[in-house]
Amino acid sequence: MYKNIVFALCGCLMAFGGFAQSPSIDSILKQVEQNNQELKALSEYVESKRLELKSGNNLPDPQLGAYYLPFGDHSTGDYTEFQISQSFEFPTVYGARGNLIDQQSVQLELDYQAKRQDILAVAKNHCLNLIYLNKRLDTETLRVEQAKQVFDQVQELYEKEQVGILELNKAKVAWMQEQFKIQQIESDVKNTLLQLVNLNGGNELSFTQGEYSASLVLAAKDSVWQEKQVIDPELTQLKQQETIAQQSLSLAKNKSLPNLTAGYNTQGVAGERFSGVYAGVTIPLWSNRNKVKAAQSQLDFQQTFTSSKTLQAYASFEKQYNDYQIMLSKFQEYEATLTGLNSDELLLQAYQLGELSFLEYYMELQFYRQAYDAMLDMQYQLYISQNQLLKHQL
Question: What is the Cα–Cα distance from 373 to 98, expressed in whole angstroms?
Answer without folding.
Answer: 59
